[in-house]
Design a protein that fits this description.
The protein is an alpha+beta fold. The protein contains 23 helices and 21 strands. The strands form 6 sheets. Strands 2, 3, 4, 5, 10, 17 and 18 form a 7-stranded mixed beta sheet that branches. Strands 12-11-21-20-19 form a 5-stranded antiparallel beta sheet. It has a 3-stranded antiparallel beta sheet with strand order 1-8-9. It is elongated, with a radius of gyration of 37 Å. It starts with a helix and ends in a 12-residue tail after the last helix. The relative contact order is 0.10.
């Protein structure tokens, strides 16, 4: 049936309206899609590009070259040497055992290193390189490179590793580096990414660790393209890192080398200070060790040898150990008494060989006594009774105050590990730490450097430097960083009466140059290099009654570890001091073990090499000539990279 025209027109009108609505909706949807596409492609383009790059591009750190360390004359004491190693990628190698067998025919492989590499390959991703042989020669690298096609997955590589040319000489000063350990990472709340680089080396002890941030440098970076599983496809670009700063020490490596040879196998230490700036010219602890062995991890056998040595080669006796200073402490006590106006240089004390204090006899080292002693004679002959009497007059508080002014009982600011404060005791210290009151007997013991008093060789050298100059000389170990001079530590005036200081210096001159002086035998006879010094003996243990009954009365009759320590402090030249020296010989049996070493090192420093024989007493010249020839043979020559001593 035919629709009326009116219905047809109405139907067409409705369809047109619906079409317009649908078309509008479609146009709006297309417009919304277009806007969204524009927003994503234009406004958010950088964000999506970054996400895409992150999936395709990796940023990898490039370790920087570590800053090198030199002595005051430009001699390298910690350098970077090329380190050759051979790595293997497990997935490229295929049959690992077969490849290792082929490699072993070209290069001597350490079985322990190979087993460690196998274990590392099992737990790491198959496409990551693992070191199979480290510290190989250039010839080994060449053989591997030439035979590359027959060694799938094997790659020869070159990098930088720390090397210490002077080996033992500066081990206790410079220290050493080693691979980053979990203990090292635990020191950081958020460890720097650089420390996550496999086998990255950081300072462990000494200057290497104290100046770690200065020496480490800043990492570089390279962009590499990786595939979906993270395998490197190609390197896109590279930005090299910034090398660490160059550090120059105040140490004179030639003097250090002589001092180490002169100490030999003694358990001993020597510190030499320049008096103008406080520069540490030598700081030697003996016996020592080869720090090169620690760079890549020392073996258990080598470490056991060092740990079991009763002379403690790993300890830095220069700053870490503290000893009773013995009679070297008497200068501080004498100055305290003079500054307090309680004694004069000319008044005397009678020494019958002992002084009775609170019902107890305190003996002088000379049991027969010294007779009448004034200040100069008491230091020259090291009379104990004079100082027992002085201690009662002055008291511990003034003595302790003067000792601290002279640099004892203080942690000196040096970039070395485990710097001790030592101990200058007073009444409060004993009450707090021992829960007891100070008694006069404590003062009598302290005044001769026994009892609770403890000092390091470095502190004794500082004390001597301050006595020689009247200034607050402080030790300086770093001379320059990247060519910029570090501030002098020559110090300001101590505010001590110069006349009192002159009395002390004169007495110290007499110790070494008067026939009755305790160091006269070890003097210098050259007019322009006379030495002013003070001997010291610090008692380790009393001889028991049973030992006395057996006739054991001398140090040499005792086991080594129970013998007295020997000490000697000095400055020179006496008329115009340039250096101060402190020498401590553990269990040396007395000052006779330390004084000749101190004298020889002093002359070596002042002459800049072996002194002429006529600087020594005529009776000693034959022995000294033989000694110089022997030391010339024994003094160590710089080691080549990879060269270590057993």
């Amino acid at each position: 049936m035919r629709r009326p025209p009116k219905d047809t027109l109405e139907s067409a009108r409705k369809i047109s309206r619906r079409g317009l609505v649908v078309a509008g909706l479609q146009a709006g949807f297309v417009g919304l899609l277009g806007w969204r596409m524009r927003h994503m492609q234009v406004d958010q383009a950088d964000q999506f590009r970054f996400l895409a790059e992150e999936n395709r591009i990796n940023i990898r750190l490039i370790p920087p070259a570590r800053g090198e360390i030199f002595d005051r004359n430009g001699v390298a004491v910690a350098a970077n040497a090329p380190a050759y190693r051979i790595t293997m990628v497990r997935e490229d190698a295929g049959d690992i055992d077969a490849v290792l067998d082929s490699l072993g025919q070209l290069v001597d492989l350490d079985p322990e290193e190979v087993e460690r590499a196998r274990a590392e390959m099992k737990r790491s991703a198959p496409f990551l390189p693992v070191t199979v042989a480290d510290r190989v020669s250039w010839q080994d690298i060449s053989r591997v490179a030439v035979n590359g096609p027959a060694l799938p997955g094997v790659t020869p590589e070159v990098g930088l590793s720390r090397h210490y040319p002077l080996r033992h000489d500066l081990a206790h000063v410079v220290g050493y580096v080693g691979p980053v350990s979990e203990r090292d990472l635990a020191h950081y709340a958020d460890p720097p990414p650089l420390l996550r680089i496999p086998r990255f080396q950081i300072g462990k002890v000494g200057v290497e660790t104290k100046l770690e941030e200065v020496l480490r440098g800043k990492a570089g970076a390279k962009r590499v393209e990786v595939n979906a599983v993270g395998r490197v496809m190609r390197e896109l670009d590279r930005r090299e890192g910034t090398s660490g700063a160059t550090v120059q020490l105040t140490i004179d490596s030639q003097l250090q080398n002589y001092t180490a040879a002169r100490l030999g196998e003694e358990s001993a230490s020597v510190v030499v200070l320049d008096l103008e700036h406080g520069d540490v010219l030598a700081a030697c602890s003996s016996p020592s060790y080869d720090p090169n062995k620690f760079v890549r991890g020392i073996s258990v056998a080598d470490y056991s040898v060092l740990r079991e040595n009763d002379h403690r080669p790993l300890a830095s006796k220069i700053v870490q150990d503290a000893y009773p200073p013995g009679s070297t402490f008497k200068m501080a006590a004498a100055l305290a008494a003079m500054e307090a106006g309680l004694i004069t240089p000319t008044e005397t004390v009678w020494c019958p060989g002992y002084l009775e204090v609170s019902g107890r006899r305190f003996h002088c080292w000379k049991r027969a006594g010294h007779g009448h002693m004034n200040l100069e004679k008491s230091l020259r002959e090291s009379c104990d009774v004079y100082y027992y009497d002085l201690a009662i007059k002055v008291g511990i508080e003034k003595i302790a105050e003067m000792a601290r002014r002279l640099g004892l009982g203080e942690v000196h600011d040096l970039p070395m590990s485990a710097v001790t404060k030592g101990l200058v005791p007073d009444k409060n210290w004993k009450f707090v730490n021992r829960g007891a009151d100070w008694v006069v007997g404590d003062t009598v013991n302290a005044v001769i450097g026994q009892g609770f008093v403890l000092t390091s060789p470095l502190q004794l050298a500082v004390m001597t430097a301050r006595l020689a100059t009247g200034r607050s000389v402080a030790p300086r170990l770093i001379k320059r960083i990247d060519g910029v001079e570090e501030p002098s530590r020559g110090g300001e005036s101590l505010g001590i009466n110069e006349n009192h200081l002159r009395q002390i210096r004169k007495a110290m001159f007499e110790v070494s140059n008067n026939r009755r002086g305790t160091a006269y035998r070890y003097r210098s006879v050259a007019e322009d290099v006379r030495i002013a010094g003070k001997t010291g003996t610090s008692q380790v243990r009393n001889i028991t009654a049973a030992e006395r009954a057996r006739g054991v009365t001398r140090n040499e009759d005792l086991p080594w570890e129970r013998r007295d320590h020997g000490l000697f402090v000095n400055f020179a030249p006496a008329e115009a001091p340039r250096i101060a020296v402190a020498t401590v010989v553990e269990h040396g049996g007395g000052s006779g073990a330390a004084a000749p070493i101190g004298r020889d090192v002093t002359l070596q420093a002042l002459y800049g090499g072996d002194p002429p024989l006529d600087a020594y007493p005529s009776a000693d010249r034959g022995r000294i000539k033989t000694q110089q020839e022997r030391l010339a043979r024994e003094r160590r020559t710089p080691a080549a990279p990879g060269q270590e001593e057993a």
